[in-house]
Design goal:
7 helices
């Protein structure tokens, strides 16, 4: 959400437009993190062949999308294809994990879609509308980020005051 500001302060002008790539790279990293959580569960069950197959399919998806669209659309395709590849790998291991562990598939899927919806909303607000960087926009981003954070905490039924008390007692 703040990639434009970070690139503005941390890089030279030739990198400012790269902020369009950041959401896809972040989504790819999140997908990879979720993949690793499920991968550990499958490793415990000694299903490493399945992990190899998921990685191979992810690589094929990534390379295929890049070969088909990179020349025409440029670097944004590399970021999107990386996300799609990691998402593919994650979905494969996610579904296969349910064969060995009892999770609520519908509850898990609902949570992913809600979080993904927030990420898409954030992307549309900040990248698709191409809002110019100003102090007012920065403050609005902080307010919206705070709202999204508290909404997600409410969705996950996290008691904010209890969290703050625990942080205070930890110090």
């Amino acid at each position: 959400m703040f990639s434009q500001e970070l690139l503005y302060f941390m890089t030279s002008e030739k990198f400012y437009e790269a902020y369009y790539l950041v959401p896809f790279i972040v989504l790819a990293a999140i997908s990879k993190g979720i993949y690793m959580l499920y991968a550990v569960l499958l490793m415990i069950q000694k299903k490493t062949k399945l992990l190899s197959q998921a990685v191979l399919l992810g690589a094929i998806v990534n390379i295929g999308i890049n070969l088909l669209f990179m020349k025409e659309y440029g670097s944004i395709v590399a970021a999107i294809s990386t996300f799609v590849a990691f998402l593919t790998m994650t979905m494969i291991v996610h579904v296969k994990t349910f064969q060995y562990y009892s999770f609520s598939l519908l509850k898990e899927a609902k949570e992913y879609f809600i979080v993904f919806g927030f990420l898409v909303l954030s992307y549309l607000l900040y990248y698709y509308l191409d809002i110019k960087l100003t102090l007012n926009i920065f403050l609005i981003k902080i307010l919206i980020s705070t709202f999204l954070l508290f909404t997600l905490l409410k969705f996950y039924d996290v008691k904010v005051l209890n969290l703050l008390k625990k942080v205070k007692h930890a110090n």
